[in-house]
Amino acid sequence: MNYNSIISSRKRSIFKLAVLVVALSFLGTANSQQFTKKKLPKSETKSSIRKTEAYLFAYFTGNSGNQEAIRFAVSNDGYNFRALNDNQPVIDSKQISSTGGVRDPHILRGEDGKTFYMVATDMTSDKGWDSNRAMVLLKSSDLINWSSAVINIQKKYPNQENLKRVWAPQTIYDVQKGKYMIYWSMQHGNDIDKMYYAYANADFTDLETEPKQLFFSPTNGACIDGEIIYKNNKYHLFFKTEGSGAGIKVAVSDKLTEGYVLRDKYIQQTKYPVEGAGVFKLNNSNDYILMYDLYTKGKYQFTKTNDFENFSVIDKTVSMNFHPRHGTVMPITANELARLESKWGTAKDILTSVEASVVKKTNIKADGDTKQVHLPVKWGTNLSAFQPNFTKFPGVTIDPKSAQDFTKGAVKYMVTIESRPAEIWSVSASVANNPVLDGFYADPDIMYAEKTAKYYIYPTSDGFDGWSGTYFKTFSSTDLVNWTDEGIILDLEKDVPWGNRNAWAPCIMEKKVGNDFKYYFYFTAAQKIGVAVANKPEGPFVDSGKPLVDKLPNGVSGGQQIDPEVFTDPKTGKNYLYWGNGYMACAELNDDMISIKSESITVMTPDDTFREGTTVFFRNGKYYFLWSEDDTRSENYRVRYGISDTPTGKITIPKNNLVIAKNKEAGIYATGHNSILQIPGKDEWYIIYHRFNYPNGITMGDAAGFNREVCIDKMEFDKDGAILLVTPTHEGNKPLKK
């Protein structure tokens, strides 16, 4: 017997058996993977697992010109986003659309993990909201270069002749069919908007199935701006509905294309109109972000949830150096972020993206031509060893990395973006006490409260498109530099039944009543003047129940009932209310401080420079009247004054009566609508006013008129009592000594 032959034969048999076992094992694994792929959505398949460390935000910005184009922004944490390409389009709308514009971009990572899909509404708003019939499909392997195709639904499908509009497409991978499903809203004739779906072809250049209805709101309202997210073995369809109510709701189903059951409650965490719900999962977290466009306010709101039922507002942790409209966010890898930065990142953007909390981020100024950046910082910052903490993006290096001495002038920083030449920039920093409030506020009224020995500013809440804010806040300070947000003191929509809009230009009065104090808050609502009362300067304030002033004075044919000012005559103890836009009116208040003596109403417009914003104070036996000239949207908005011998008498106009005006050299514009503060017991005076946002306001057009910020500068007089011209500054004033 040939043992070698037998052993050889057995080895071959064992080898064949091993191959067979491996093959069967592989086949079983393949079948298992195939089964898994059919049963699990993209978010749970192995093919889509990759380490995502950052985020890409695709959005558009508005309704005109190149605003209707796709832009990109990036973030390391999902909360703080910075625009790429200086907030300019990354794709030319004219090259990819039939209308010349695109809106509502939705971006998706493909099932293979390395292909990207984007869809958008093919539309320009100037042609009308019912003007579009098409969507745009885009595909990329690198997030930089995109192929595209236009799908005109009405031309492609003969049964769509009464189609009016095609809005807000989005894409999701259907694991059952192994295809990408596109879903969007359409309106036909006089019917409501409903959600439809169809499948894209393999190349993502066309639709290969006819549109089918996916969902319609059982409340018989419009159903638009859909977003489908798979979580806990359920498909959650977020959508906007309109009709008897308006807002974002959720419908849930076990299946992607049918069976959605409505959860009949609104989930947006705001009272303002919203649209464009976008949902994304935070990296390395079980939490999701639901964001949406407050389109009437020019703002975005971010909320957080882990169950898709309870949502908390996180706006205070979110920052963006751009104003997005209806967009979506997709997690990306560090390499992908580095690639995006290499293509569209700029040294200017890198050096204006700082994380140091002492930097006033809305006031950073950068000049790409001279390669200079200025960082305004809060009082108390140690500039001799200051670390701006520039945001660290993959593919970007910044040197030096350590804290630097900014007291000796600008510091040179070298910024290197992967695959591009390094750039040297000069970065300077200085203390800027103006603006004194964080955020956008206007029309400030200031008061020193004897009860608390604190100063309080009561402003218009600004930053809302068309001056559409509906609430008032107050801020307190002991030194006029460091201010504490005391929160909302009066909300028109909840607290003022006679006027639920346009919360503008308030003023405040502290009065001793018995052994305590009361606070009378006069405010504008719906172009009428009301009054609310509180026992504390920070409220809460209770509305009197009706407007105090709701019609034009006799003899006045135009203007608005806005901008109240309250003043106590130190000679007589009488209280007066002033108001008016286009005219200045005055009336004596009754002792209750919530009603006026109608017979005392008088019109005392000083001259034709008067626009609005009356302010009155008393000094050395004279009554000073200040007012704003021009329009709050104008860079020449400014303050003038006159003097009278009585609080209701003829106002004499000095020859040089300008109080404060723009400081063009400092980039400060539209310095108006002020109040005046006298430090108790001293002949020390300050003017509190608003200006355009610095440095961007001057470039914003009319929007600068509702993106304003509050400032304080010292005001002085000459020996004859004339107000010396105030130069508005960024530095402001040092803290008052206690």
TrEMBL record:
Secretion signal span: 1-32
Coiled-coil region list: none
Keyword list, A-Z: Carbohydrate metabolism, Glycosidase, Hydrolase, Polysaccharide degradation, Signal, Xylan degradation
Gene3D superfamilies to which the protein is assigned, alphabetical: 2.60.40.2340, Glycosyl hydrolase domain, family 43 (2.115.10.20)
UniProt cross-references to InterPro entries, sorted A to Z: Glyco_hydro_43, Glyco_hydro_beta-prop_sf, Glycosyl_Hydrlase_43_Enz
Entries under PANTHER family matching the protein: ENDO-1,4-BETA-XYLANASE, PUTATIVE (AFU_ORTHOLOGUE AFUA_2G04480)-RELATED
Family: Belongs to the glycosyl hydrolase 43 family.
Protein name: Family 43 glycosylhydrolase
